Request: fold
Amino acid sequence: MNQPLPGVLDVQTRSQPAAATVRRLAADLEPPRRQIETAFVAVGSRLTDGAAMLGALTKVFEALPEILEGPQVQEASAHLGAVSGKARELSDTFAREKADLDRLVEVVAAANAPVADLYRTVKMMGIVAINAGVTAAGILVDGDEFDVFTNDIAGLSDSAGRTIQEFAQVYRQLTAEVERAVEQRAHFERTHAHTLESLADSLSRTLEALDEQRQGALAGSAETGRVSRQIVGRIGSAVMALQVGDATRQRLEHIEAALDALADLVEGGTAAGHVVPAGCTGDAVAALAALEQAQLRQSAEIFAAEVDEAEASLKALASDAGMIMAHSREIYGDTTPGKPSALASLSGQLRAAVAVLRDCEAERGKLERVAHAVQGTVKVLLGHVEAVQEIEANMRLVSLNAAVRCAQLGPRGAPLTVIAMQLRELTTQTVVAAQDAMSRLDQSSELASAFGAAATGDAAGQIGRLEQQANLALTLLADLDKRLALALQSLNADGPRVIRELEAAAAGIVGQADIAEVMQDIAMQVAALSSVAPPSSPDPALVAVLEWLRAQYTMEAERQVHSSLFGPRPGAASPAAEAEDAGLDDFML
Reply:
């Protein structure tokens, strides 16, 4: 019988690890494997939920700049600009009308002196007419016909007195109308002091704020896009890093199966249905122990690195989420509960503006009525002036007739001649005073015509159209405000949830690196199962066991570790081809 070479028997029969020890090591891998599975499923679920909510929020806010720059907002801004412009135009018009009204007061008041002169002149004319009658009665004798002094002059004087009386009364009415208009305008100005200008400024500021928000949104969209792309990248990094959880779980399952096969080999000489000769048991233990400790060490190293990467990505993702939400709040407004929105403030401004514009047009309507009254009064006064001129013409004829009669009387008619001359002078003065008064009042008519025409026009129609424009602007902006409000409500509701989910996902990763240390400890114990190197030329039965293990792999990294120890699988065209096939397998998984 041939004797074994010296030392060979010692190597082959060296004490093998107990099967229970090997099975215990396999069992020791189950808790970290289950812990990894549970933790990474929870983390993946939180990441999925958080990323989905964050993606939805990001899409909402990425769409807002385009909405803010859209035709609806531009149309609304144009309508608001029209209301603001009308308010400013009315403010300027009121200033001009006040100057015109003040000028009207001056012109009407300036006519007071000529009217007073007119009244005094007519009064003197009445006195002279009475003197004419008395004088004529004293010097006439039977047969003299001097009705011109006793009747004609008195009649014309009375007619002039009545005409001037009516003239003065109409003038007083005109003065009262103008004073009332001035008082009403002063009351309106006290009530609405600087209202129009303030409204115009307020609307202008609101428009500027809306434009600034649009510009800020457009400028901020670039930053939003950058952070969004960064978030997408971090989510991708986190997802890739989290895949290590499933990969490590599978590798641990494979290592557990290999250790169970090793325990079967130690216990019964078979592994995975393959009988290993008794003389090859030591080689098999050395090969499997070396293989599984290498697999376990590499799994632990990859797991530790990827866990650190996943934790960093998740923390950065939570930070980015907080950043993009703060950025959105900064651009699109404060979301403090109970704080009125910019649109609510704008709506109040517009309604106040339309109400004030209506009041202003109503006030200008009063001015229009005053203008008509002034023009009508001036026409009446002009009629009285024409009557005065007619009386003056008749008085001249009467005076000429009186002069003829006085000449017939000789020296006895001298007093009547003086009276006739006085009447002609007074009549002339009456006409001059009346014309002087009318020259002033004609100016008042021109002024009234000017601001009356300005106050007329399509004022009510303009305000109605402005109100329609304001309402249309509010409708357009209300839709925008609703979308902004919904976006901000989503931000307030989902934003904190997103951050909580991402922070919880990051927290779920914390501590997982400790599992890598457990895996390293178990790897050291697996390495201690054999103190010899794996065989360089393994027995065919051992090769069959190793190929069975190779067939269980689902990760390229597992195949690479295996190939580094025992070469490529038998019949493989080349290591590169094997790697390519393995990569396809990974992809299909």
